[in-house]
Design brief:
By secondary structure, the protein is α/β, with parallel strands linked by helices. Helix content is 35%, strand content 15%.
Length: 352
């Protein structure tokens, strides 16, 4: 075919056509779910929700009926040891537009493939009581677990993951892939064990997190002396320097080896990424992962049996450019896209 013939062919197929005229069946399926003719809702219009998912605040009282995945906000940061502000993380992540709908590496458009809803925020009895808030989170997530719905959560500080794990791991301990600057396996500080520096020690000691199936990636900074429990319990710790030495393929292979095919939780603290990309966080540590490295690591987890996940420590007031919130929203989309390939979840929703 000559260049002239090729041009004529392209004009006949695509000239003047919009999203309604697609020939690749994979792309057409996504476009048909999003567009009406050549129109789609403006991303900056309407009420802001996580990933523009439907807003169903009454879902908890209705037993999460008709939902496969619940996107949940946890606006609580009473557990921080440095800068506060992660309580504003869910609101900031909800305001981010143009995330999704199609993940070009994982080849999925998750919001069109299963039922996803933003079910609002965890209700708290008191904004001043850290122990009480921790109990409220566990109570809420026990209802989520009982319903069979998969939770993806936006914090809030990292202390929120402990009560989530108490709910999800109540009947069998879960494995975990954690991307973070800090291991968060410290002990009691100032008479308090529910802070964001110790959720995973608490979870292991409560029998809901399996340390032998836990890998912590991107660890760095001056708090290494606080993470003795990670090494003593048998967690796999991959410092950020080792990420560079090993290479991403080896890091991915090691993480997959550690968690195996059992139920696995994915917890992503945005301070795992270098503050050049995510300055809006309470305990920034220089020398972290790039956003590209983080995405590639997550992409490499395709096919693992994730049963839930979170993105934590977005504190938007330290980032006037809103980049941290945007990264947070992209990470939620990554976690949702990974769920589309979790074997147990695909079986549950009838995809093979």
């Amino acid at each position: 075919m000559t260049a002239k013939d090729n041009l004529q062919n392209l004009r006949e197929l695509y000239g003047g056509a919009g999203a309604e005229k697609m020939y690749d069946p994979e792309f057409k399926k996504v476009a048909d779910a999003i567009f009406t003719g050549d129109r789609r809702p403006p991303p900056y219009s309407g009420v802001s929700t996580f990933l523009d998912a439907s807003y169903q605040p009454h879902a908890p009282e209705n037993g999460f009926e008709g939902i496969d995945v619940a996107l949940i906000g946890i606006p609580m940061d009473l557990g921080v040891t440095n800068r506060s502000g992660a309580r504003f993380g869910p609101r900031a992540v909800r305001t981010v537009e143009r995330v999704g709908p199609f993940h070009h590496v994982l080849r999925t458009a998750p919001l069109t493939e299963f039922r996803v809803a933003d079910v609002g925020d965890v209700p708290f009895r008191s904004r001043f009581d850290l122990k009480g808030c921790t109990e409220d989170i566990e109570t809420f997530y026990r209802k989520v677990a009982a319903s069979g719905v998969v939770p993806l959560s936006v914090g809030g500080d990292h202390s929120i993951t402990y009560p989530i794990m108490k709910a999800l791991g109540a009947h069998r301990p879960v494995g975990m892939i954690q991307i973070d600057a800090h291991c968060d396996t410290g002990g009691t500080y100032d008479g308090q064990k529910f802070h964001h520096g110790g959720p995973f020690r608490n979870a292991v000691l409560d029998g809901v997190l399996d340390p032998q199936r836990t890998v912590q990636i991107g660890i760095r900074g001056s708090s290494e002396y606080l993470w003795e429990f990670s090494f003593a319990s048998g967690m796999t710790v991959i410092h950020v320097e080792e990420v560079l030495e090993m290479g991403l393929d080896a890091v991915i292979a090691k993480a997959r080896e550690v968690v195996g095919d059992g139920p696995t939780y994915l917890s992503f603290d945005v301070d795992g990424i270098d503050p050049a990309y995510t300055p809006g966080t309470g305990t920034p540590e220089v020398g972290g992962l790039t956003t590209r490295e983080a995405n590639m690591i997550l992409n490499g987890m395709k096919g693992l049996n994730f049963i839930g996940g979170d993105v934590v420590e977005v504190a938007p007031q330290y980032d006037p450019g809103t980049n941290t919130a945007h990264v947070g929203a992209q990470l939620v989309f990554q976690e949702l896209s990974l769920l589309a390939h979790a074997p147990w979840f695909r079986k549950k929703i009838g995809k093979h």
